[in-house]
Amino acid sequence: MHSIESLPLVLKQLNLPSIQLLWEEKQHAALQNNWAYGQYLNVLCNEELAARFQKRVQRYTKESKLPPGKTLATFDFKAAPSINPLQINALADHPDWIKNAENLVIFGPSGVGKTHLAAALGYRAIEHGMRVMFSSTTELVQKLELAKSQFKLPYILNRLSRIPLLILDDIGYVQKSSQETSVLFELIAHRYENTSMIITANQPFSEWNTIFPDDMMTVAAVDRIVHHANIIKIDDKSYRRAHASKKQQSLTQATT
Ligand code: ADP
Ligand code: MG
Questions:
Q1: I need a surface site. Which of 10, 113, 136, 140 has the fewest CB within 10 A?
Q2: Are 83 and 234 in contact (CB under 8 A)?
Q3: Measured in whole angstroms, how far is the alpha carbon of residue 135 from the centre of its chain?
Q4: Number of helical H runs and strand E runs in the chain
């Protein structure tokens, strides 16, 4: 029989910090409430699991570079009547589409909430235990081009493929380069049918020939993206502009 004095050390060695912190307190609760031994053990194990989950969410959130505060809780569906909240909630609550390596493309003019929605779905994916990476497409393309010049592109693409959801914000801002192949195309081809992407875009697919070196590659890229994809088109008024003018109005009222 091991003595109870060795328990803290054993819990430490087993890397169970929440149980270490709570076993005495829960022991009192167990005695008071006549919990069975198994029940006591179950309570402690669940505390450990919950703490691990919270830590993982924090770690993934930090790693994801998601813009702070852009969650579904702060998204006002009334201000965006062209968006179907049921569709968004389904994507948020049932992340099978991410597990199945499907994509989501969000189209719309500037300021209508594309980035906000993409980020909000990213946060929900993290809550479902998935790693996420958010990046402006231009910034990621620059990183990939640098990696390519150092012959590290396959390594970076493989590392990215461990992240089930990649959010490429503002794909349309990418300017086609004079290079024969585009790193963006290589990224899309690499993720095709393996891992998911959310892509936000200001312009329709028909104008994506400004992004890729030639029309054939544009078609090939679009084909791969849409083969398994949900498409959302937002055609509401710019939330950004509406709110800027509201702020301006109240400022003018306050000063006159
Ligand atoms: P886009 O990416 O389409 O240009 P953003 O997602 O950046 O637009 O939205 C512009 C600003 O307006 C952001 O601060 C965003 O949080 C806010 N916003 C846009 N739509 C909504 C909405 N329906 N509810 C709450 N905030 C919104
Ligand atoms: Mg945006």
A1: 10
A2: yes
A3: 10
A4: 11, 5
Separation between Cα atoms, residue 169 and residue 165, nearest integer Å: 13
Residue 164 in 3-state DSSP?
A: coil
Question: What is the model's pTM?
Answer: 0.90
* Distance (Å) from CA 231 to ligand 1 centroid: 18
What confidence category does residue 204 fall into, taking pLDDT thresholds of 50, 70 and 90?
very high
Cα 202–Cα 204–Cα 206 angle in degrees, nearest 5:
140
> Is the C-beta atom of 95 inside 6 A of ligand 1?
no
* Whether the CB of 199 sits within 6 Å of ligand 1: no
**Nearest-10 crossing angle of helices 153-160, 183-191:** 40
Interatomic CA distance for residues 2 and 32, integer angstroms: 25
